[in-house]
Write a structure and sequence with these properties.
By secondary structure, the protein is α/β, with parallel strands linked by helices. The chain has seven helices and 17 strands. Helix 6 crosses helix 7.
Amino acid sequence: MTEAAGADRSVGMASEVTAAEQLQKSAPHGETQPLPEGAGGRASAAQVGIEDPGPEVSFLVIGDHGGVKAPSPQNAVSYAMQEANGKAPAFVYSVGDIVYFYGEEWEYPHQFYEPYAHLRLPIVGIPGNHDGDIKGKTTKRKPLDGFMANFCDSRPSVPPSDPHFEFERHTQTQPYCDWTLELEAVTIVGLYSNVTSHGHLEESQVEWLVGELRDAAAKPLIVSLHHPPYSIDAMHGGSERMGEALDRAFNASGRTPDLVLSGHVHNYQRFTRKRGQEEIPYIVIGNSGYHNLHRFAKGTEAGEEVVAGVTFEYGDESEYGFLALTVAKGRISGEYSGVKPGRMPDGSDATITPAKESFQL
């Protein structure tokens, strides 16, 4: 069965909720999952199979891309990334929700290995809530077991779920679910924000982040976590809890990142936040393949201040997409491309709108 081009897969709340109300919500904490055994670590590009190009690097960012139930959007975005023009990317970075709905290992071939079989780039990233959640309290599975087996292996191996190596992608060798990727041009610090609706960071994770920020070299610095501190979507909204945890780390370390990347919300958004004399960009990229997209709340247009100090710069609620980032001469620039699936389940007839938004930070 194929999906009609331009099929409406947007979801949202029927209420008159406003962007200002959704921007950063205080929500009940909810039940968290324990962290896997181990501790946060660091990896060079070579240690995770990335060829570091040196003082200038380009890479792609995706989020919420597991194609459960309807694979066409994920396949279309994968095809679009293969066709992307511009500077050759060195790798793909995921901000989580790689496999829906419970991070099962047996879903990795369908939602990860096969969709990216023709994308000949290393894929690294952090887990999202669906990667860490487990179905039911009586399961013998451990939280994040699928992610740890496929992304935090001790060495590149044939995936257990692809024993015949049909899709020709080895397991990844990240040090942990919280980890720092060191490249010559940029440092990327990623955190697992657990399974609750608005995220959770253990105090040990915040302390680890403080150390990574404090020790980061004097070059562009990116922080990533799945749950967004800011969002004006009508479904989830932003997380006050995540925003406060990041701010504590920024204050304690004396270092503010040049960009914060998140997912969880199934659309694309970019914000600028004024923090004292600094401006911090926050980007949500959560529309890279999961079939339902999230509509925006009412009341804010691009370029307007949502609340004092936080400006909504641009957003896309109507298409799937991916982000291309380039770091050169100490600056970060980006292009967001939109993707509309066609009728072919493999995504090969997708309509691609390159550079729907371009920016220089």
